[in-house]
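step: validate -> pass
step: tokenize input -> pass
step: predict -> running
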Amino acid sequence: MPQMTMIQAINDALHVSMDEDDSVVVLGEDIGRKGGVFGATAGLHEKYGDLRVMDTPLSECGIVGTAIGMALYGLRPVPEIQFLDFIYPGFDQIVSEAAKMRYRSGGEYTSALTIRSPSGGGIRGGHYHSQSSEAYFAHTPGLRVVMPSTPREAKGLLLASIQVDDPVLFLEPKALYRHGKEEVEEGAFTLPLDEVRLVQEGADVTVVTWGAMVPISLEAAKMAQEKEVSVEVIDLRSIYPWDANAVLESVRKTGRLVVVQEAPRTCGFGSEVAATVAEKAVDSLEAPIGRVAGFDTPFPYTLE
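step: predict -> pass
step: emit ->
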């Protein structure tokens, strides 16, 4: 199997999807001839042409609204929002239209689109290019929110997202784009969108995390192991809907929970994980639930 970085795996997934399904189209700012600001769409325009790889104006509302219309007519659009920080002009289209289409039509229509966007910090982008705002969208029924943490996860989860008949917000931790390589299967394969990934088994404490915090949590688990603390690390993969049963099972085994998120602490998705465990597994807890999170400020450039 070839070794790939995360950005290479995402690019490969887009090539595989477009090869296998003529209804898959991509659109966004600078994604055509330039191949995207990070290179995620490199080579697509030369291979598939203007009708399937479309550069758009600088209008996130227009990008998302156009993609919703495409989806309603049977296409499977994969729009790119250049940075998650730029998504807010399209927020209404996502939460009021795409996420509600199946419900408002009584199941007659849906918006099968996958919105890709780089998320989080780590590239010295400052407070306009480094936000982690997944919790805004996890609050929206009808919308899937997915975040990979490795190259293989990125490819398998993106392929699954494009195939599912739901709108998906696919968040790509930009700090991991070229963080390292791993073996990734060639061709088409999918990973489940509704199941956690058990990254490391442990007995003393459960750490639940996602995205760019997965490798950092693994580093912390190694440090804990030196002090004879056995850490179970769980990667949510799907932030919404999330696999609460797997997390509860782990906490009932270890008796402790720490939630790690890059996003600011207040009202982050880690709070939902903590609340669910407090409601349904409090009798298994041997210590208070811990939350490790970002600061409640715009992302500080000095910390990048």
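step: describe -> The first helix runs from residue 6 to 20.
step: cleanup -> pass
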